[in-house]
Write a structure and sequence with these properties.
- The protein folds into two domains: 225 residues, 3-Layer(aba) Sandwich (Aspartate Aminotransferase, domain 2); 123 residues, Alpha-Beta Complex (Aspartate Aminotransferase, domain 1).
- 34% of the residues lie in helices and 14% in strands.
- Strands 1-9-8-7-6-2-3 form a seven-stranded mixed sheet, sandwiched between helices.
- Helix 12 packs across helix 13.
- It starts with 17 loop residues before the first helix and ends with a helix.
- 50% of the residues are buried.
- It binds pyridoxal-5'-phosphate (PLP).
- Pyridoxal-5'-phosphate binds next to helix 3.
- Belongs to the trans-sulfuration enzymes family.
- This is Aminotransferase class I/II-fold pyridoxal phosphate-dependent enzyme.
Length: 419
């Protein structure tokens, strides 16, 4: 009996629309008797006679067939020329990418990034001895000024043999600066829309400015997902995801991923993953691929709900401010319309005081008061209850992760809590 080929992704067909791609990619070869879904491969080791470096799989900390279908799927969805890399969590992915910043260089990061990314960046900057600069990522001029300042400050300071990405090779980057090449002055980190303030960065303008000055650009695409935004098409070098959120979509997995079209960057990030060793489990990755199948329909429904809820919140007397890029008067609306295929399903709104915000989050019956986002169920949270949330986030700010429940039920519950 012939064994079905374990290889996945028979359908790298650029003609398919993204909502078909999420259903079709990462499936086993279509031969008689093959599974429709990839099996969960639990092996920790694989047959690898001879040259271990040339084995497709050798040891599951380096690579495993359990990851391949999801990695190929995400690479294709992000319009990368290479498969993605899964990590044990979004923050593990973020830390691996931030670790690429060279000693003596600068990481420019949004003031209102996901607070875990900020905390991680601070810790890695201290250990690796690079500068950390926070900026309002929606203020393009301020970001360019920060790039200029960081570029001047680090000129000549980065050791040439430092193992960092630097401008130069066919991909645009080499894994390590060699004598005679200018080492990278650092990295611009973009999160858009930001968590939880929902500021929208001008990604094409920022990536162009950063590239001109030799900076790597990484984009956290968690809020948008590749269905709404493909940062590599907008000039970014690296895309990062908390797969925990929309991609997996059911609040039952913690997982992260990185995607790039640069061989050298992928190699460096792969090494980082293998050497640190905090890898993803086979079952989590399998669940993430299963979640990905319904990403398009989940997002459609959640976004439609979010648009109406944001409009109603904006008109509600108890609400001081509503931020949602889908609102025509939102400061990020024009940019989001230009670079995204939709506005996502996260809303932030502010009420007068922290106590009022807490009372609302406690009064809801259908919305779940919980942290995280991107699952099918609607979540509500006053963000400043996290001591690590930046002080510039208003005390009365509530973040909503709008799910796929019935719109009238969601609004009735929220309206009652607001009252
Ligand atoms: C935008 C964003 N990026 C990254 C992360 C971190 O992801 P994880 O919790 O999977 O480590 C989060 C978590 O909330 C997030 O909101």
């Amino acid at each position: 009996m012939t064994q079905p080929e374990p290889a996945s992704s028979p359908t790298r067909n650029p003609g398919f629309a993204p909502d078909t791609v999420v259903v079709e990619i990462g499936r086993p070869q279509r031969v008689d008797g093959a599974s429709v879904n990839p099996p969960i491969d639990l092996s920790s080791t694989f047959v690898s006679a001879g040259d271990i470096l040339n084995s497709p799989y050798a040891y599951a900390r380096f690579d495993t067939p359990a990851w391949t279908p999801f990695e190929e799927a995400l690479g294709q969805l992000e319009h990368a020329s290479l498969p993605g890399l899964v990590f044990g969590s979004g923050l593990a992915a973020i830390s691996a990418v931030i670790s690429l910043v060279p000693a003596g260089g600068t990481l420019i990061i949004p003031t209102h990034s996901y607070q875990g990314a900020l905390a991680s960046a601070e810790q890695i900057a201290g250990r690796q001895n690079f500068d950390l600069v926070t900026v309002d990522i929606a203020d393009t001029e301020a970001v360019i000024a920060a790039l200029d300042e960081a570029g001047h400050a680090t000129a000549g300071q980065v050791p040439e043999e430092e193992t960092v990405a630097s401008a130069g090779d066919a991909d645009g980057w080499t894994a390590s600066a060699t004598a005679g090449e200018a080492a990278s002055p650092g990295m611009l980190w973009i999160e858009t829309p930001t968590n939880p303030m929902l500021e929208v960065a001008d990604v094409p303008a920022l990536t162009a400015a950063a590239k001109d000055r030799g900076f790597l650009v990484s984009v956290d695409n968690t809020f948008a997902t590749p269905l709404l935004q493909t940062p590599l098409d907008l000039g970014a070098d690296i895309v990062v995801h908390s797969v925990t959120k929309y991609l997996a979509g059911h609040s039952d997995v913690v997982l992260g991923a990185v995607v790039t079209s640069s061989d050298s960057l992928r190699e460096e990030l792969h090494t980082e993953r293998s050497m640190r060793g905090g890898i993803a489990g086979p079952f989590e990755v399998w669940l993430a691929l299963r979640g990905l199948r319904t990403l398009a329909v989940r997002l459609d429904r959640a976004q439609a709900n979010a648009q109406v809820i944001a409009e109603r919140l904006a008109a509600h007397p108890a609400v001081v401010e509503t931020r949602y890029p889908g609102l025509p008067n939102d400061p990020g609306h024009a940019r989001a319309s230009a670079q995204m295929n939709g506005f996502g399903a996260i809303i932030s709104f502010t009420v007068a005081t922290a106590d009022k915000a807490t009372a609302i989050a406690e009064a809801v019956r259908l919305w779940t008061p919980a942290t995280s986002l991107g699952g099918v169920e609607s979540l509500i949270e006053r963000r400043r209850r996290h001591p690590s949330e930046p002080a510039t986030v208003p005390e009365g700010l509530i973040r909503l992760s709008v799910g796929i429940e019935n719109l009238d039920d969601l609004w009735a519950d929220l309206e009652a809590a607001l009252a």
